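Please predict the structure of the following assembly.
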Amino acid sequence: MPAALIFSLFIFAPMGVALFISLQEWNMMASMEFVGLSNYAEMFQSDHFWNAFRISILYVIGTVPVTVALGIVLAIMLNSIVHAVSLLRIMIYLPVITSMAAAAIVFQYIFEPTFGLANHVLQSLGLPRLMWLNDPTQALVAVVIVGIWKRVGYNTIILLAGLQAIPSYYYEAAIIDGASKMQMIRRITIPLLSAVTFFVTVMQIIASMRVFTSIVIMTAGGPARGTDVLPYFLYRNAFQYFRMGYASAIAYFLFAVIFLFTLLQFTFGEKRVHYQ
Amino acid sequence: MPELKRSARKTQLTPAIVAVELFLVVFVIVLNLPFFWMLSASFKPKSEILSYPPRLFPSEPNLDGYRYVWQMVPLARYFYNSTVVAIAIGLSNILFGSLAAFAFSKIRFKGSTPMFFVFLGTMMIPMEVIVIPNYISLNFIGWLDTYRALIVPFAVSGFSIFLLRQFYMQIPRDLDDAAEIDGCGRLRYLFTIIYPLSQPALLTVGLYAFLASWNSFLWPLIVTNSDRMRVIQIGLKALQDSWMIEWNELTAASTMATVPILILFFFVQKRFLEGITITGLKG
């Protein structure tokens, strides 16, 4: 089967090769040198690596809870309104299908410190202007905002489908029992939506661990490594310093983290999904 | 296929619902503000692009930004490359995806279940992990900076196979049996009977693959280095890296890279949103 061939050539074999390279010191020019686990040792002793890991975790903490919570609220709202549902659904999804490269350029313009729209809005609200991409912490906040903007629509659409799969007799029974709207949301909607919520949370964690394009375009990992997330750290080691062995070790670390969350989804997620 | 239909509950128009509707409208406007800002900036003359406070609309809209980027880089070539690659990936995902999905749903063969899960597992392997070996192997066989490098690794995906398999499972066995009794070969059965039946699913798969390819960034960034092979997303980055570029020009290029996809999405959104819900709920 063609699919088997493509998968083995471009996914399975590379997984093995990556493991092999991660045990070598290699710059693609000179011959490989077997160095055992020293790439991994170097990685775990490197401040830059731990910085990248920390930034990635901060990015996840910044984006995931907000996109999930906002997704739930928007889905519940969309499920309860009468007009223009499909148009609103489309509009909420637009950022998801937009190319991150183009979006990141526009956001870079928006976050421009002297004449950008973001500072203009802050100032009009009587808030202090920010440095945005010129300050390590604020730059991270800026890329987190872009991440939320880009992905909240995905959660909303999936959660909305989850809501629509909840049988209406639960609500009918609740109405007969005299439950209020808020009680219904808390006692019926949220619990029955937990499997889907869990799914989108894991998906968002994985996606956030892999954030790359917005970082390349908006900050190049800076300033002062303030937005140097793991994939970008990996990319620089591989394709700017050509340290293929070291970069492969980083890649395997990233893979391990992502794999952990995938396993989590499979072991806890599957059991709780029961639709139709 | 589960449909994204509104729930059957009768909803009455109450003030609370109107308030929610208003909130959603405002939210959606704010969410889509960057698109408006991109469009507005792309038509601004240079003098207004750096004015403070920023102007909502350009006072004298012009096409300077578009003209400039069009001359500065071979944008037409980038578009052509993106289109060729995305269409090739869309079509090959339809073809290879349906072949594999057909095998997994209609043919009993030894090890089909474990193999299916292994194929599904490919969806969990992040691009970042295999990007280095793939780069090295393509470098070794001299494929870097070619269409092949951009297309072949993505010619099929676990996602395409999964989505089509879900669809083929719903085609009743009776139909398979009838075809077999009438002496219809497997491939002929797939292409002449299942294809017409599964048109919506095939279209969905093609669209996904097309869009993912159009928006992909990391892989083309690594495997292309000449203007001749560059795709539009990497073209944007190249523009952004250049010294003498203004925001009206950058936003003009971004607009051109985004608007065709947004328009396409408006036409296919129903199919598309149904697709993500299937995989979302069952994946």
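The first strand of chain A starts at residue 24 and ends at 25. The mean pLDDT of chain A is 86.
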